[in-house]
Queue: 2 jobs
Job 1
Amino acid sequence: MAEVIVLETAEDAGAFVAAHIAAAVRTDPEFTLGVATGSTPLPVYEALRAEAEAGTDFTRMAAFALDEYVGLPAGHPESYRSVVDREVTVPLGLDPGRVHVPDGSLDGIATAGERYEEALRAHGGVDLQLLGIGRTGHLGFNEPGSSFGSLTRVKTLTERTREDNARFFDSLDQVPVHCVTQGLGTILRARHLVLLAFGESKAEALAAAVEGPVSASMPGSAIQLHPRVTVVVDPGAASQLQFADYYRWAQDNKPEWQGI
Ligand code: F6R
């Protein structure tokens, strides 16, 4: 079962996860971080910037993004390439040559998944993958029905996800219909998964992912197949967890030598 850590606020969660990443980078400067986009990881990125200001050198860290929209013009501010550059690459001083985002341009889209898998393989995979969860239960953009063995490929976003993400665009029409996303099989290869969720709107999907049946209908439940998963949530997102008391009890009694 995943380790579930309930912290008071998203800021606390961001600082907690960033401190763990910063410590790992101090031990291994070439650490590879799997980056998510959307609102959820932003407190982690903010706290990583604070860690950099406090002296941790992230400049040799590598990064792989989970997904990208298909067909947005190069440089579109809401393309995940732009978001990762803005939130992670530039502020942390990463080498852009070590920051990978799936190629969502229409030209060559048929091979985008394969090329990304090859880049991941050649690099040696991801040490820690940050994950958010969609209200549909998606991880990356693996909407319900995605195979647990799936690799990076083009997927069609659900209308619900497009509506949820319309807040980043001027209108719903502008939200792409397709994306290139790491598959659930790709995500499960990362050596450590850190799933974050904040607010009551995520409570149902989070509880289903952490405690529900393992099913392709709930892509988030794929985390139950991974040997090392840390779930970091606020009380709103934790509000439908059946075993919340046990998770708190386990945290209160956690052996000091154990990391996350
Ligand atoms: C983003 C991603 C998605 C988001 C999810 C939650 O790269 O892959 O799975 O993590 O849609 O989005 P937010 O965080 O905006 O609620």
Note: The mean pLDDT is 97.
Job 2
Amino acid sequence: MSDLKALPKLELHLHLEGAAPPAFIRAKAKQKHIDLSRIFDAQGHYSYRDFTEFLRIYEAACTVLSTPQDFHDLTLAVLEHSAAQGVIYTEAFLSPDFCGGGDLGAWRDYLAAMEAAAAQAEAGMGITMRGCVTCIRHFGPAQARKIAVCAQETAGDFVTGFGLAGDENMLHPKDFAYAFDAAREAGLGLTAHAGEWGGPQSVRDALTHLRVSRIGHGVRASEDPALVDDLAERGVVLEVCPGSNVALGVTPHLRDHPIERLRTRGVAVTVSTDDPPFFHTTLCQEYQALADQFGWEMPEFHAINHTALDAAFCDAATRAAIATRLESP
Ligand code: ADE
Ligand code: ZN
């Protein structure tokens, strides 16, 4: 479809570090005399064989991001890419783990740098960003509690959500209930990665123990018709990232991807890129692939963007401003 680039879009599921262009990470590595050649292939792309290795490479790339200025630069670089895809509102997963290891004082400095870059991007490129502070499952519940304190203490106009990412094969959602309770008390919107690697029960467990309104991925819920009906009835919003699922091997091919079955069964689905350069994708490529594979046209794309707008973790004034831009681009 020719006019996909011009279509105003919302993206709810984007990891800030995971969106770092390889050239950006290489430049920072060179500047700091860090040898990161092992994480790139001969073409200069991120190189990994499976999800476990993906997480390792991701964390290795983050080692070159060691100052607030690095995160300022990263935020600008990422928002520039997103704006070029027609994104007008993005929620980025921000990880205090990579910004001072969960120390609140350090986190405040990193966050200030990211917020300044976001303000600059909003003024210059017309893209609005909000932050979803995210704990990392395989770093464990004690560390997640520290991350929740970072989220709680900086909740406001910019930090509006709290999430859980990382290795779904480790630990259990209930191990993170304390962190999510703290974030909920601070008024943050809640989302958790589930049903990416874990089956339907992992989605149920995230809903029960973490009381989230959104699920990151959630695609394996499609294996249980009763759960699909329940998600549809309760209006749970799925942050679906088809290209990520195919690249990591959750689904062998887009034609097998459950997004279309979930959507037609009434589940509230949205579309995001997760970690676009890792998966050789962009948001426009995702839209184009859905158009090619499932025949999605403008009504489907308008619907997913309105679903994202309703589910966005932002205040009423921001939602109204984005709604206006969706209606009259
Ligand atoms: N962190 C970055 N991308 C992720 C993914 N797809 N699943 C879990 N954690 C992640
Ligand atoms: Zn993700």
Note: The chain has a mean pLDDT of 98.
